[in-house]
């Protein structure tokens, strides 16, 4: 089925359970904060609201692992250190 949509399946190498830990943690947060207990009238509504959520997640939501900065703020600080 994935091939029908042009999607290539990617798996971690055997014995490397932490390969995809950041992505898995991010998807867990999205499921917990955005998806649970919600329904959408259409695919377009889902896309719009998910886009809004991802913008908020990257620009406004603080992350403890990033020193209580948003990902964008964290990246800007790192970039300014090297410029």
UniProtKB/TrEMBL annotation:
Signal peptide: none annotated. GO terms for biological process: DNA integration. InterPro entries: Integrase_cat-core, RNaseH-like_sf, RNaseH_sf, Transposase_IS3/IS150/IS904. It holds the Pfam family rve_2. Residues 1-79 form the Integrase catalytic domain. GO terms for molecular function: nucleic acid binding. SUPFAM superfamilies: Ribonuclease H-like. It comes from the Bacteria. This is Truncated transposase. It comes from Erysipelothrix tonsillarum.
């Amino acid at each position: 089925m994935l091939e029908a949509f042009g999607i290539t399946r990617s798996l971690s190498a055997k014995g490397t359970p932490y390969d995809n830990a950041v992505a898995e943690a991010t998807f867990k947060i999205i499921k917990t904060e955005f998806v649970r207990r919600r329904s959408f009238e259409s695919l377009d509504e889902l896309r719009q609201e998910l886009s809004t959520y991802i913008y908020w997640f990257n620009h406004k939501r603080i992350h403890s692992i990033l020193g209580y900065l948003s990902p964008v703020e964290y990246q800007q600080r790192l970039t300014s250190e090297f410029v």
